[in-house]
Amino acid sequence: MRGSTFILAAAVTALLGGCSRPAPVDVPPLDAAAHAFQWKAWGGDAGGSKFAPLAQITPANVAALAPAWTFHTGALAKGWETEGKLTFEATPLFVDGTLYFSTATGEVFALDAATGTQRWKFDAHVDGSEDRSELASRGVTWWRDPTAAAGTACATRVFFGTVDARLIALDAATGQPCEGFGEHGQLQLSVHLLRDSSKGDYEFTSPPAVDGDTLILGSSIGDNWSAANALGVVRAFDARTGALRWHWDPVERTAEAGDPEAKPYPTWDGAANAWGVFSVDAARHLVFIPTGSASPDPYGGERPGDNRWANSLVALDTATGKLVWARQLIHHDVWDYDLAAQPMLVDLKRDGQSIPAVIQLTKTGQVFVFRRDDGTPLFDITEKPVPQDGVPGEKLSPTQPFSALPSLVRNGPVTPADAHGLTFWDRNRCRDLIGSLKSEGIFTPPSLQGTIEMPSYAGGVNWGSGAWDPATQTLVTNVNDLPMQVQLLPREEWLRQIKAGGEKGWEYARMKHTPYGMRRRVLQSPLGAPCIAPPWGRVVALNLGTGKLDWSIPLGTGKHKAPWPISIKGMPGMGGPLMTASGLVFIAASTDGYLRALDRATGKELWRAELPAPGMATPMTYAVGHRQYVVIAAGGHGKLDTGRSDALVAFKLPE
C-alpha cells in the first residue's frame, strides 16, 4: 500500500510539472552576541521583558519555520483527584545549552537544547489524591553559587515550588537534591500558615525570584474558601541553606504577629497572597511583587477598608524585606482582580532621558507605569467614583484608580443591545439573560440578583504579562474580553444548591465566615457561546512613547470550540507573548491550538503552526549551533476545557 501511495504521489508530481525544490530560505548567520544570550529567568530576564536580542528568524523568513523536535513529559495527571484542572504553563530556561522546566505534577526536566534529548529528570512525588485549588507550575529558577568551585555538587542550582507547598533545590548538572538545603534538599512551607484552609488550598505555582543569594517566594491560596484563609506571606530564604531570612505579609497586622509562626492578630481577619511571578532590580536590590485579592474575593464585609497591601504593586528591599514603596491598584477588591501579571522593569525614554520604570498590567485592562526607585507615577492616575450598590453588609470603596493610558479592554456596561448568539434563538436567550443581571460597567459589585463582571476575573491581562521592545518603546500583551456572571447567594440558599449537586456549568465557592456563598460562570448562551460578540481574546500593542495603541487584533479562532464550523475570530486563553529583535511577536495563548508569529509593527500574522494541544504558556527563544529556536509548552488547559498534551515543542529554520 505504501508503494502504491508513493507511485500515485510521483504521478501527480509529474503531471504538475515534475519535481520541484522549495525556494531557498535566507537564514542570517548567528553572531557571538546571539550565542551569548541566555534565557535565565522566567520572563527572559529578572525584569520580565520577554524580549530576546535574536534576529535570525525574521519577518521575511519566518514562514519557513518548522518543527525541530518534540519532547513528551508523560505528566498527564492520570487518576489524580484534580486531573481536570491540569495545565502545562511552564516557560523553560536556557542556560549553557540546557533547557530546564517543570510540570504541575512535580517533575523537573533538563533537556539538550539542540535535540530535545533528556539529560535528567527529578520527580518530587506529589500526592495525586489531594484535592487542589490549582494544578499548575510556570517554571523553575536557575542560580549559580559564586562561592562554589566550578564542577562541585550544587555549584549551580535549580529551585522550584510544588503544588504541595515544598521548595526544592536541585543540582543543575545532575538533578539530584542539594543535601545542604533545608532537609535533604527541600523545605515544607505550609506549616503554621494554613489557618482555616486545607493543604490543597496552599500551593506554589510560580518560580522564586533571586537576588544575590536570596530566594524570594510567594504562594497561591484558594482565596474564595474562607474569610480566615491561609496566610499569604512572602518569604526570603538563603539559597545555600534554606534558612529563613525575612518574611512580609501583604495584610498589615499588629506587632504581635511579627513572626509568621505566631497567632495572627490582623487589623482585618483576612489574607492576601502573591501568586504571580516577581521581578528583581539587582542594581537597587528591590523585588517587585504583584499581590492578589483579599479573601474571600467577592464579599468584603468582614474586611472593611482598602485592605492594603492586597491588589498592590509592592517594592521590598531584598536584603531585609522592608517596604520601600507600594501602590494599591484596586481598593477593597470584590471582583477577584488579583495583580497576576509579572511587573515589567523597563527603561522608559522621555524628554531625552532614560527613566528606570516598572509597568504593571492588570486584569482590569489598566496599564500603570511608575518610577522604579520611589513609585512616582509616570502616567497620571485618577481616583474615579465607581458603583456603590453592594449587598447588605458590604463596604465598598467609593473610588478606584484609573490610568491616563488607554484601557486595553472595554469598561462600559453590557446591555441587551450587546447580545450575541450563534443563532437567533440563543441570541434572544442572551438578551433576556443580560437584561436580568446588574451591569453598570467596570467595578459593578457582585449582587444577589447576579452581576455581569466585565472585565472578568480572567482578565484583561492575566499571569502571561507582556513583552517589551526597547527600541520602539512598545508593550505587547494579550487580553481577554470575556464577560462573567457572578452571583452571591445567602448562606441557606448556597447550601441548598450544594446539597442538590449545584447547577451545571457553575463554579461554587464557600466563603466561610461570611453571610454568603458565591457562584460564577461565563456569561453564555444555552449553546455555550459567550453572550457578547467576539473577539473574546486579542493581542494589543501599546506605545509608551506616544501613550497610544498602535494596533489591536483578534487572537485565535473558534477551531475545536465552536459547536459546528463557524467563523469566530478572537478566543480567550492564557499565556503571554515573546518579542525578538527582528520585529517578531510569538504567541500561542488561545484555545485554537496554534503558535503564531506576528509582525511587531502591524500585528499582521506571518506564520502559524498547529500544536499537539493549545499552548497556554509563554514561548521562549535561544540560539544553539547554527540556529535560533522557539519553544512552547503545548499542554492545553483543564479549566478552559481544551485538548490536553504533555508536549514541549521546538521550532527552527531549515538547515
Walkthrough of the structure:
- This protein has 655 residues and is mainly beta.
- The protein contains 4 helices and 40 strands.
- The strands form 11 sheets. It has a 5-stranded mixed sheet with strand order 1-34-35-36-37, with no helix packed on it. Strands 2-40-39-38 form a 4-stranded antiparallel sheet. Strands 3-4-5-6 form a 4-stranded antiparallel sheet, with no helix packed on it.
- A hairpin with a 6-residue loop joins strand 35 and strand 36.
- The longest helix has 14 residues, at 2-15.
- The chain starts with a helix and ends with a strand.
- The coarse silhouette is globular
Distance between the termini: 32 Å
Helix segment tally: 4
Largest sheet: 5 strands, mixed
| Helix coverage percent | under 10%
Number of strands: 40
Evaluate the radius of gyration. 24 Å
Percent strand: 25-35%
Q: What structural class do the secondary elements suggest?
A: mainly beta
Low-confidence stretches: 1-20, 255-265
Strand order of the largest sheet: 1-34-35-36-37
Overall pLDDT score:
91
